[in-house]
Amino acid sequence: DASYDGNCLVNAFCAGLVRKDRIFLGTAAGVGNPVFYVGARTGRDGIHGATMASESFGEGSEEKRPTVQVGDPFQEKLLLEACLELMERGCIVGIQDMGAAGLTSSSVEMAGRGGAGLLMHLDRVPMREQGMTPYEILLSESQERMLIVLQKGREAEVTEVFQKWDLQVAEVGEVTGDGHWRTTWHGVEVAGIPVPLLTDAAPVYQRPWTEPAAPPPIPALIHPADIPAVLKQMLADPDVSDKRWIWRQYDHQVGTDVEAGPGGDAAVIRIKGTDIHLAFVAECNGRHVGLDPYTGTMGQVTEAARNLACVGAEPIGLTDCLNFGNPERPEIMGQFARSIDGMAEACRLLSIPVVSGNVSLYNETDGRSILPTPGLAVVGMYRGPRRDVRAAFGQAGLEVALIGVLATRHLGGSLYLRAVHSLHAGAPPEVSPAWERTLHDALRALIAASLVEVAHDCSDGGLLVALTECCLGGGSAGRRDGPVGLALEGEWDLPLLVGEAHGRVLIAYPPAQQTQVRAMLPPSVPWLRLGTTGGDSLSAAGWSAPLAELEAVFRGSFAAWAG
């Protein structure tokens, strides 16, 4: 979307495995315990990076951009391995990485969590530049650095481990019992403040905010009669087109644990030595949130949960990156507040804990804000044997049905309006997380019973795009079945095909299992048979789209757009 041109967003999500009895927290405790600085040397890169992130861009902004630091992934890997080795020795009291505001935030936050004080000797910090001041050392955001509180008497171990990994290591302070954060420079105290003033007792903003404006109405439209042409316009959109141009640039099979790779409804990995399977999905729809922050964000949460249900998984945790404009503007603060309300309500009704998150505010250039963009990543899980369900038909002779919401002409915030009519209008689709939960439970039961071979949710582009993705094999990694067509039964006008109501999933199954599928679906979940797979086109009464033409657009558009 053009709103991101001056503030490009990159939200990255990382998941890891940890033993529950081996969790190390970012806390400073135990008066007299030493504090160690480990990792890379401190430079002037990243100074004021956190404050830059709290400013809008305008004239002269290019001068601020060099404050963004450059990471070194290889040194980061060394640091991670060294930290893990030290953790195995059982001598760590607390550990935290140095992120925004660097040494300042990490040391203060650790002291705050431990209810302790901290004394830091800044002249002992390893530096890679001459003449650095205490101010610069405290605020540097150089990468690949950790702060560790160690058990007193085990100092030699941390030095041994980090020197072995060819990393900097220095004892830079100690835990105190006076509740103050203090720093010295060659023996002279240069800063000191009670820890609570920077943590629990810090001022809380009560920013003024206004309710978001109602979305503009959808004007009267004359819908194009050429449905295949409309479909090609939507398939060419960067939000829909095949993303293999991206994920073919890296090895997504590392570790031989990937069961469902990128490009489907959710990625799935196995955890070796267990019966656990983890699923991962990320959701982001600034168009819907921009039209109605509350409903749009609720829709993102439910769609993420629906994606996980399509691979048989149940959501177990959500993390977020909340990307918004300048919160000092009441209308932007209103977007922020209502988006959080919508996320909280959907998570409550779907029983999804929000385990972590962060914000990126002030995304504004020359007075123009980005679309409100809460990026959400959700992890799901199931136990037992692998559930072999896919998002592509892959073979002829399967019965195809739509379960959930059936007939909808809801065009608000749709891809169709944007791609075909260049419109950003209408209220986004209504959301009922409680009902969605019923749908998700029913879908997971069908998949666990091996009654369905295909499950794919309807979202951007509505039923028409979802069916095309199933016919073409979507963008999913791994085994690629050839395109398989479908002739839709019944009458389908364009609004029915491109409407984007929530709560809809396409399923496909062998004809012999239709009775069992119907019997397992609860009465509250509607079901509609759409047809039987086969042929080389996607068609309905009055139109036909050859799969070869659709595939050429779907596969080739993103790479051409990315250039």
Can you describe what's shown?
- The protein has 563 residues and is an alpha+beta fold.
- It has helices at 49-52, 73-88, 102-114, 134-139, 155-164, 227-235, 244-247, 286-291, 293-309, 330-350, 415-421, 433-448, 462-472, 494-498, 514-520, 547-562; strands at 34-39, 92-97, 117-121, 145-150, 168-176, 180-185, 188-194, 258-260, 267-270, 276-283, 314-323, 354-360, 364-365, 368-369, 373-383, 399-404, 454-457, 486-487, 504-509, 527-532, 537-540, 543-546.
- The strands form five sheets. It has a seven-stranded mixed sheet with strand order 2-4-1-5-3-6-7.
- A hairpin with a 5-residue loop joins strand 9 and strand 10.
- Helix 6 runs parallel beside helix 16, helix 9 packs parallel to helix 10 and helix 10 (330-350) crosses helix 12.
